[in-house]
Recover the amino acids of this structure.
C-alpha cells in the first residue's frame, strides 16, 4: 500500500472539506523540506474542483496558517507556486495515494480521512456518526450519506452492531479496504504437497494436478523423468474386487 502521512490534528483546525482536500494533496506531494511546487490547474484537476474553488481553498489554508505560499517568477513569466507546509503535532494516519485518482467529493474525502484516523492496528474503527459529524463540521445527514458512498464504492465497509441483551444499537465497526488493484501471486504450499505424498489414500487425479504444477519448477530433469520419479512414490492402487 502506497500512502502518505496525514496529521491527526488537521481536524482540530476545522478546515472546510475543499481546503482539507487541497491540503491533503499538497501533503502527498511534499518533499523532505516540507515544500510542494504545484499550480492551480494541477490542484483543481487532482482534487476534482474548478480553478476558482482551488484558489479559495489555498487562501483558506493560508489564513489558517497551514501553508505558506511563495510566488515564483522567471524572465519569461510566472511559474508554479511553492507551498511550505507547516508541521502539525499529534501523530499521523495513513491515506492511500490513489485516492486522488477517484471521483470522490471533498466532503466524502474528509469523512474517509476521519475514519482512517480512528483505525487501530487491526484495521478497525468504531466512531459514532455524531462524532464523525462533529469532527468534520458537517451535518449528521451528510455524514450518513458520505458513509453510504464510501461503502458503495468499496472505500470502507461497516458492520452494524447491537447489544445482545437489550438489542440496542452500538457504534458501527468500520473496515478499510486497499485501493490498489494489485493481487498477490498464489503459491502452492510445500508442506501440503509433502503431506499428500505420504498419504496412502490420496486422490490420484489431484496428484496429477500437483505433478503438473511441480514440473514447471523442475529444471534439472525432463518432464517425463520428473513425473516418473514422483509417480514411483505414490501407493499402488489395489482392486477392491
Amino acid at each position: 500500500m502506497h500512502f502518505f502521512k496525514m496529521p491527526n490534528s488537521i481536524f482540530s483546525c476545522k478546515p472546510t472539506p475543499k481546503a482539507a482536500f487541497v491540503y491533503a494533496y499538497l501533503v502527498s506531494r511534499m518533499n523532505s523540506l516540507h515544500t510542494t511546487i504545484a499550480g492551480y490547474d494541477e490542484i483543481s484537476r487532482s482534487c476534482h474542483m474548478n480553478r476558482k474553488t482551488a484558489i479559495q481553498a489555498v487562501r483558506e489554508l493560508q489564513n489558517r496558517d497551514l501553508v505558506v505560499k511563495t510566488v515564483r517568477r522567471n524572465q519569461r513569466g510566472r511559474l508554479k507556486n511553492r507551498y511550505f507546509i507547516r508541521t502539525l503535532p499529534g501523530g499521523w494516519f495513513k491515506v492511500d495515494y490513489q485516492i486522488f485518482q477517484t471521483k470522490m467529493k471533498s466532503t466524502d474525502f474528509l469523512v474517509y480521512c476521519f475514519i482512517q484516523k480512528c483505525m487501530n492496528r487491526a484495521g478497525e474503527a468504531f466512531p459514532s456518526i455524531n462524532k464523525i459529524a462533529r469532527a468534520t463540521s458537517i451535518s449528521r445527514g451528510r455524514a450518513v450519506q458520505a458513509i453510504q458512498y464510501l461503502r458503495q464504492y468499496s472505500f470502507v465497509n461497516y458492520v452494524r452492531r447491537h447489544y445482545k441483551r437489550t438489542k440496542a444499537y452500538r457504534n458501527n465497526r468500520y473496515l478499510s479496504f486497499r485501493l490498489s488493484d494489485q493481487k498477490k501471486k498464489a503459491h502452492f504450499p510445500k508442506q501440503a504437497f509433502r503431506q499428500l505424498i505420504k498419504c496412502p489414500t490420496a486422490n490420484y487425479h489431484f496428484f496429477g494436478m500437483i505433478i503438473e504444477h511441480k514440473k514447471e519448477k523442475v529444471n534439472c530433469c525432463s518432464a517425463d523423468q520428473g513425473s516418473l520419479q514422483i509417480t514411483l512414490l505414490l501407493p499402488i492402487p489395489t482392486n477392491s474386487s
Observations:
- The two ends are 58 Å apart (CA to CA).
- The first helix runs from residue 17 to 28.
- Residues 190-231 form one domain.
- The longest strand covers residues 3-7.
